[in-house]
Amino acid sequence: MNAKKLAAEKAVEKIEDHMVVGLGTGSTASHAINKIGERIKQGLVIKAVATSVASEKLALEVNIPLLPLAAIESVDIAIDGADEVDARGNLIKGGGGALLREKIVAFASRRFIVVVDQSKLTDTLGSFPLPVEIVPFAPALALKQLRALGCEPSIRKKEGKEFVTDNGNLIIDCRFARIEDPASLDTAIKKIPGVVETGLFLNTMVSEVIVGYENGETVTRTITAARS
């Protein structure tokens, strides 16, 4: 049983005609995109905005009509995965390298639904390295400042080269032992010149977390800290 797929498809059930839908990035979000494509074949009428080039490509393959990110003022519902979810509904995202666009779309959404399998749940964030997107101008300075916050930072690489985001930036993966106060850490990191965005998605941004389990069940957690 594919628990990620179960969670993603459960979230897609919440999409209604004439909504603007935010499409996340990553393996779990891909399940949601494919399911939305199936619903469009069955008559669902929506428009969508993608959070990465990869998600845009998949959406076009399954005939989801897309809007450019610059054209939207708000999103009715966004569906995306997460690399880690703590007991209060805070997230680490950005394993797929799309954290900046993902956060822009999540922030613009009236309803942000996070879909994960049970392996992504944790009491306290920190097992998954925290991605931080930086401008490529002076990475050594950013590494030094991030290290001073108590992590072991490293520039992300892919196939032996520095990974470059869809925005032309670099990602530093920060290994913290535990992230007890995500909000304070998010604020501290953003004070570092050259930092564009962090992969910390605070629970004030999250509406629901849908968790898929290998036994075929899904559980929906409403996050009470979510903004109205």
Automatic annotation (TrEMBL):
The keyword Isomerase applies. One of its GO terms (biological process) is D-ribose metabolic process. GO terms for cellular component: cytosol. It comes from the Bacteria. The active site is at residue 102. Pathway: Carbohydrate degradation; pentose phosphate pathway; D-ribose 5-phosphate from D-ribulose 5-phosphate (non-oxidative stage): step 1/1. CDD domains: RPI_A (cd01398). GO terms for molecular function: ribose-5-phosphate isomerase activity. Substrate binds at residues 25-28, 80-83, 93-96, 120. It catalyses: aldehydo-D-ribose 5-phosphate = D-ribulose 5-phosphate. Its EC number is 5.3.1.6. Keywords: Isomerase. It holds the Pfam family Rib_5-P_isom_A. Catalyzes the reversible conversion of ribose-5-phosphate to ribulose 5-phosphate. Homodimer. Belongs to the ribose 5-phosphate isomerase family. This is Ribose-5-phosphate isomerase A. It comes from Chryseosolibacter histidini.
